[in-house]
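[Meeting: bench + compute handoff]

Bench side (C.D.) handed over the final construct sequence. Compute side (W.E.) agreed to return the predicted structure before the next meeting so the bench team could plan truncations. Sequence as handed over:
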Amino acid sequence: MSNNFFYKDGQGRILDEQGNNAVGWEEEVDPYNLGTLLTLSHYRAFQNRFPTEDIEELDVQMEELAEELPQVETSGKKYNMYSNSQKSVFYYFNRIKLCKAAPSGRKTNIEPRAAQIWAKRLGEDPSWNIYEKQTNNANRKPSQLQQEHKQHHLKSFDNYP
């Protein structure tokens, strides 16, 4: 691979180091891979990591689960509690099918803004557990028990269930 350096000669022409005009310059290697574009399922079929039979079965299962989810319209402001099946279907459409956050949320009856927050958090921290309860620790009162009292209670509950 050779590096070509070009400069302007002051008369509006662009020349290389040998004085050749840049218009006649031909690139040796195609800088863009413009091969045939494949769908994601075809791409995964060519990769040995994802067997297509399991993916097709998973597609059917997730579509059935998405249809079973309750399609309840929420009105007004209220705190939504999302089930694990809703979270599973959202994760499937967002991370495996690579849909955007809002359409994935709509398919699972999750508020679009909540879906966007989840997708952003999954992108930033892949080890984040979507199934655990999210608590707001910033506005929480400090605990009234000290650490030694907590340990005493934990030991007593472990010893005497």
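W.E. noted at the follow-up: The CA atoms of residues 20 and 129 lie 60 Å apart. C.D. will use this when planning the next construct.
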